[in-house]
């Protein structure tokens, strides 16, 4: 079987994205907030101290730089990692970003 060329793979082995999955992925790609908006939403949700503890407890210097310097992008590895450490579902992360985007 030719695994280099997905067009030649059996249909059941190729992943096909549904319209709903595509729409959700596109929505998440547009979810971006400032550091202030993210931290204010985390504070409002009672999660700011927990997030800071996750970052402080990490040995990853890039994680610490992202927390201190970067804006927050929903589909980033940083957001996925911190969300997983806080046992947040993808839907809960989406709602947090929506709440953050409303903070001016």
Structure description:
The chain is mainly alpha-helical. The chain has helices at 19-30, 35-44, 48-56, 61-69, 77-85, 90-101, and strands at residues 32-33, 72-73. Helices cover 59% and strands 4% of the residues. Strands 1-2 form a two-stranded antiparallel sheet. The longest helix is centred in the N-terminal third of the chain and has 12 residues, at 19-30. The chain is globular, with a radius of gyration of 17 Å.
Across the major sheet, the strand order is 1-2
Globally, the shape reads globular
- Which structural category fits the helices and strands? mainly alpha
Radius of gyration based on Cα positions: 17 Å
| Oligomerization | single chain
Mean pLDDT: 86
Note the gap between the termini.
Answer: 54 Å
The total of helices stands at 6
Total beta-strand segments: 2
Tell me the fraction of residues in β-strands, as a range.
under 5%
Low-confidence runs of at least 5 consecutive residues: none
Sheet of most strands:
2 strands, antiparallel
Residue share in helices?
Answer: 55-70%
The H-and-E topology, N to C, reads as: HEHHHEHH
What is the structure about, briefly put?
With 104 residues, this protein is mostly helical. Helix content is 59%, strand content 4%.
Write the layout of secondary structure elements.
Elements: H1 19-30, E1 32-33, H2 35-44, H3 48-56, H4 61-69, E2 72-73, H5 77-85, H6 90-101
Antiparallel strand pairs: 1-2
């Amino acid at each position: 079987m030719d695994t280099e060329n997905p067009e030649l793979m059996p249909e059941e082995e190729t992943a096909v994205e549904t319209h709903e999955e595509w729409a959700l992925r596109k929505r998440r790609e547009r979810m971006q907030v400032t550091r202030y908006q993210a931290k204010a939403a985390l504070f409002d949700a009672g999660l700011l101290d927990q997030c800071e503890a996750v970052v402080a407890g990490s040995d990853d210097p890039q994680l610490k730089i992202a927390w201190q310097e970067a804006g927050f992008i929903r589909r980033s590895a940083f957001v996925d990692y911190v969300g997983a450490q806080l046992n947040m579902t993808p839907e809960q992360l989406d709602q947090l970003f929506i709440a953050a985007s409303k903070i001016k």
